[in-house]
Amino acid sequence: MTVVSSPDTITYSSTDRPGITPGTARRVTIASFVGTSLESYDFYLFAYFSAFFVGPLFFAPLGVFGGVLAGFLTIAAGFVIRPIGAVIFGNLGDRIGRRPTLLITILMMGVGTGLVGVLPTYAQAGWFGAIALVVLRLVQGLSLGGEWGGSILLATEYANPKRRGFYAALPQLGSPVGSILSAVVFIAITAIMPADQIAAWGWRIPFLTAIPLLLVSLYLRWSIDETPVFKQLLATGKRDRFPVLDVFRKAPAGFFIGIGAAILGIGSYSLMNTYMVDYGTAVLKFSFTDLLIATTIGGLLQLVTIPLFGVWATRIGSARVVMIGAIGTLVIAFPMYYLLQFATFPILVGSMIVGGILPTLAWAGLGGLMSDLFPSTVRYSGLSVAYSLAALLTAFVPALTYLLGGVTGNAWWHPGIVLGLMSVITLVSALLAARRRPIIDELEPEAEPEPVGVA
Fold first, then answer.
1. Is pLDDT of 9 > 80?
2. Are the beta carbons of 234 and 452 closer than 8 angstroms?
3. 24, CA 20 to 30 Å: which among 143, 153, 164, 278?
4. Full-model pTM
């Protein structure tokens, strides 16, 4: 049944999902995609908010520079705690199931984001609002620690393994959809409200919209069944007692490859959608609205390119798609930021498109690449912890790039250094992943499951 090709690489022979129709796989993928869209929407709301509003509203005594830096560090706080969320929810996902774990994560994210909309500012309650903001950001970080890995597993563990690359790419649409929705909300608010009203109360509206979106996401995830792969683990009693620890026994090399492979896909979003908002307005003198429009155009294009890259991944392999994306991003990193110095809107849009498509290759192929690295008994833990550590490593990209800009006098090439370095790390990791045989689960006919409890 099982062919062992290396100490931590196992390949199963099955190529079908017995009893699962394409319609079922699509419905589960939609539920996964909607959840990741809400997560991304909530995250990008905070990212745009931090780059533009956090300093004046919550960290006013720190001044302009200190307020901006505090806003970026508040973003980073969510990433710092993210690996803890990955350990907690990765363990739950491998022990009690993918579906119930994802219900918990989406609830935490939606409630945490909605509460940001009712926080008092510094002028209203002093440092209480800032402290509460950081606490809610930590709640978001814990949720994100378990969300991405579980969403990828919902899609891939229902899918035919031959199409794993495609189905693993579809939840990645959640990131551009979340970016688009959050940008559109802010564009609409800035178009219909004067700046003083936005600063007074209008900024709260986007965060409050997370509550109705949460209800939709909860309904969709509640309506689906547990994945067939986890059902098989229940039926055979093969669940690990401590799956997070067993990742290092069963897939140690895959774990570190996964971290490196995720750097560019995550870090490029932090650089382009968070740092560039402040850099573009303060240094390049673009308007905030122009930056949001350009970001939205780039995100709309990703709605087409991500599924196409997913199809490509089924033909050449997810790892090779990530590798091509890393090479392309490395090539355009410095030319793109050089052209931005001319500060015209067409160049800004072109940069967001080109600078979005190539890192998107690495993003679209990431779920498939990482799913191929871990056996099913520790897959939720492996994906979640590796992804969260990569997110932690890239959490400080906006703050570090901001500091690098200060040291270099905002030289045009300083963001290119950061983007190029992330590209190299992901390229090396994708090359290593491409040399490995993917781990595919074989499903036996369903047996009576053991009780869902601690073994």
1. no
2. yes
3. 143
4. 0.78
